[in-house]
Specification:
CATH superfamily of chain B: Sodium/glucose cotransporter
Strand content of chain A: under 5%
Distance between the termini of chain B: 65 Å
Helix content of chain A: over 70%
CATH class of chain B: Mainly Alpha
Oligomer: heterodimer
Strand order of the largest sheet of chain B: 3-2-1-6-5-4
CATH architecture of chain B: Up-down Bundle
Number of helices of chain A: 2
Order of helices and strands of chain B: HHHHHHHHEEEEHEEHHHHHHHHHHHHHH
Number of strands of chain A: 0
Mean pLDDT of chain A: 84
CATH topology of chain B: Sodium/glucose cotransporter
Mean pLDDT of chain B: 88
Distance between the termini of chain A: 12 Å
Strand content of chain B: 5-15%
Number of domains of chain B: 1
Radius of gyration of chain B: 24 Å
Chain lengths: ~80, ~575
């Protein structure tokens, strides 16, 4: 099977990929904004005694994996 | 601290290195083509490539640097983990499939596909070499930090040992052996970090009855070392540090918590009082004196941002911008690292590139979550060397058993081997394929291309060894931050705009790569961090002498790359479509 031209590959990847990319940018940007502007909020401990700083950090790592899996399954047939 | 050499450690370490070298010679025994040497014939399975991504990416900075930073400064080290992993989102959603479709052997191939320009090849080859060299430094420093406790050899010996082993790996079978070394390393690293985390949770937290007292290490002008005024020896040395002063109230009366689940462990650390150590340096005619002073801090304070990045609590705008700049560079840098990008050429198609990135994200994500437990485990292990942040993870392992210490140290060493071999492969391709063949126009047979690549790898190995010796003592995560800044500033704007802005011109790409690389390098060289840690100024003098307002350049130089590309492209004529 021959590869499609790079520009088409980029375009196909771009629609869904860019959407998921911006979702993650919003999550990462929101977290960084919190660290920079209101770090005191990150001391809040809503998750079984674990503070928001750790919960959101682990959450960001998990979110990257979940979005990656979504992307892989949606584009599995391409 | 002086560390006694363990025969078990030496044996396990020797087995690792000899096994890796044996594999390389086995893979390299067949005749090689340029496609095999530079891209493993594009036949690596996507799963193997995904784990090799982890082996390539999880460098000494990730394993030694982040664990050490969490152990000494708390939560801020974990911010590196978050930033390093986030960068893979850019790689997967924006870069992975197009870069596979655009390139052949090197990053320059991808950027130059539409234009066939010597200028692009030259600019990108230089940027590849600069980024690779900046990334090599912390890896080699990490190797030197490991060798002393493991084999009892001096720092320089570790650097040379890694340099020689990696050069042999690369010149024997190029990208094929590099891939398998990275696959083995990635698998072992994640697996044994998991084992170490299970042991940490099983042990729980243990309260220490010791009364911590300050310690002073003096290095005299003749090189001899004193501890608290007496010569350092096996029986008179710095005391290991990192203890729990008080357990949470719910464990009142108990000396230890016993086994804990992951969330309960994190909560217990947060509710404990922990003894951390500050280091203050003072230089006079009798030598360099470092005073390590115990400081009791609450776990809650250690598990919030601001322990390392003082700017988050200082209120100074420049300090906050410095932090934001670092986190932006980590986010944008991963997908711009040449040694990561060339791994996309080792799989057969865009779908395999996509799937291997997802596997890479899974392995790397698991590892980065584990770094939190490893760092906190080290912080409370009572085994830390107050003078050597990079040794936190191996010394944590030593607090369980000497054998585990040997295994973890050997894996850390293999970690360095895997990453350095990827970096040398990227540099070798930049020299032989981009500079010699495409820029200088030297026509070569397939065999000659491989030979020139191997000679380039040899040269880069020597450079890496020299830099690893010169930069001894730097925190390896800090040094990697520089490499990410340069990569993100020089490479990402050109790559993204080439893919998504049809008006991009050849001149725009050359200008963006050059402006991003020179701008970020200049910024780093003129920054307070460099004045203090490279030029040897005191912190106050460095802050006064720095010519840029904060040390991390990405916040300025990444947008600069985009801006320069847009302006130059608009001022120049687009190339006619090829073909």
């Amino acid at each position: 099977m021959t590869e499609p031209p790079p520009e088409r590959t980029a375009a196909a990847a771009s629609r869904l990929g860019l959407f998921l990319f911006w979702v993650y940018v919003a999550l990462y940007g929101g977290f960084m904004a919190l660290v920079l502007v209101r770090p005191d909020l990150l001391s809040w401990r809503p998750f079984g005694g674990v503070n928001l700083a750790i919960a959101s950090g682990i959450g960001l790592i998990l979110a990257a994996f979940v979005l990656a899996v979504v992307y892989m399954f949606v584009r599995a047939d391409r | 601290m002086l560390h006694q050499t363990s025969l078990t450690a030496v044996a396990i370490f020797a087995a690792f290195v000899l096994g890796v070298l044996g594999l390389s010679f086995y893979l390299g025994r067949k005749g090689q083509t340029a496609s095999g040497y530079y891209a493993a014939h594009g036949q690596i399975h996507w799963f193997v490539n995904g784990i090799a991504f982890a082996g390539d990416y999880l460098s000494a900075a990730s394993f030694l640097g982040i664990c050490g930073m969490i152990a000494f400064s708390g939560y801020d080290g974990f911010l590196y983990s978050i930033g390093f992993l986030a960068g893979w989102v850019v790689a997967l959603f924006v870069i992975a499939e197009p870069i596979k479709a655009l390139g052949t052997f090197t990053f320059a191939d991808a950027l130059d596909r539409r234009f066939n320009s010597r200028g692009i090849k030259l600019a990108v080859a230089i940027s590849t070499l600069v980024v690779s060299v900046f990334y090599l430094i912390p890896q080699m420093v990490g190797a030197g930090a490991l060798i002393t406790p493991l084999l009892g050899l001096p720092h320089a010996a570790g650097v040379i040992l890694v340099g020689v082993a990696v050069t042999l790996i690369v010149v024997t079978a190029g990208m094929v052996s590099t891939t398998w070394v990275q696959f083995i390393k990635g698998s072992l690293l994640v697996f044994f970090c998991g084992v170490l985390t299970v042991l940490i949770l099983q042990r729980g937290l243990v309260e220490s009855a010791d009364e911590p007292a300050p310690q002073v290490k003096t290095v005299r002008p003749d090189g001899t070392v004193l501890v608290d005024g007496l010569p350092q020896s096996a029986t008179h040395d710095l005391r290991p540090v990192g203890t729990i002063r008080r357990l949470p109230a719910r464990f009142a009366g108990a000396a230890a918590t016993g086994p804990l689940r992951p969330l309960a462990y994190l909560a217990a650390v947060e509710d404990s009082t922990i003894v951390t150590w500050t280091a203050k340096k003072h230089i006079d005619e009798s030598g360099t004196h470092t005073t390590f002073t115990p400081v009791e801090r609450s776990g809650a304070e250690l598990l919030k941002p601001g322990g390392k990045f003082k700017g988050l609590t200082s209120g100074r705008l420049a300090d906050r911008l410095d932090f934001a700049s670092l986190m932006l560079a980590l986010f944008c840098g991963t997908a711009s690292l040449p040694h990561i990008l060339i791994r996309y050429y080792t799989v057969k198609d865009a779908a395999a590139a996509r799937k291997s990135t997802v596997v890479g994200i899974a392995a790397i994500g698991v590892f980065y979550v584990l770094t939190l437990f490893l760092g906190l485990g080290a912080m409370t292990s009572g085994a830390l060397d107050p003078a050597e942040e990079n040794m936190a993870a191996p010394l944590l392992a030593k607090s369980f058993s000497t054998t585990l210490f040997a295994v973890i140290s050997a894996i850390a060493f293999t970690t360095v081997l895997g990453t350095v071999s990827g970096l040398i492969m990227a540099g070798s391709g930049a020299v032989a394929h981009d500079l010699v063949e495409n820029v200088c126009g030297v026509r070569m047979t397939d065999h000659e291309k491989v030979r020139v690549g191997k000679i380039a790898a040899l040269g880069l190995g020597v450079v890496a060894m020299a830099l690893g010796i010169v930069f001894r003592g730097f925190n390896v995560s800090f040094l990697v931050g520089w490499a990410f800044n340069i990569a993100a500033s020089a490479n990402l704007p050109a790559l993204v705009m080439l893919l998504f802005w049809p008006r991009t011109t050849r001149q725009g790409i050359v200008a963006a790569v050059t402006a991003g690389m020179v701008g970020s390098l200049a910024w780093i060289l003129l920054s307070a961090d460099t004045f203090e840690k490279v030029y040897g100024y005191t912190r106050e003098a460095a802050a006064a002498s720095a010519l840029v307002p904060f040390s991390q350049p990405g916040l300025v130089t990444i947008p600069l790359g985009f801006l320069v590309l847009i302006i130059v492209s608009l001022l120049t004529r687009p190339a006619a479509p090829r073909g």
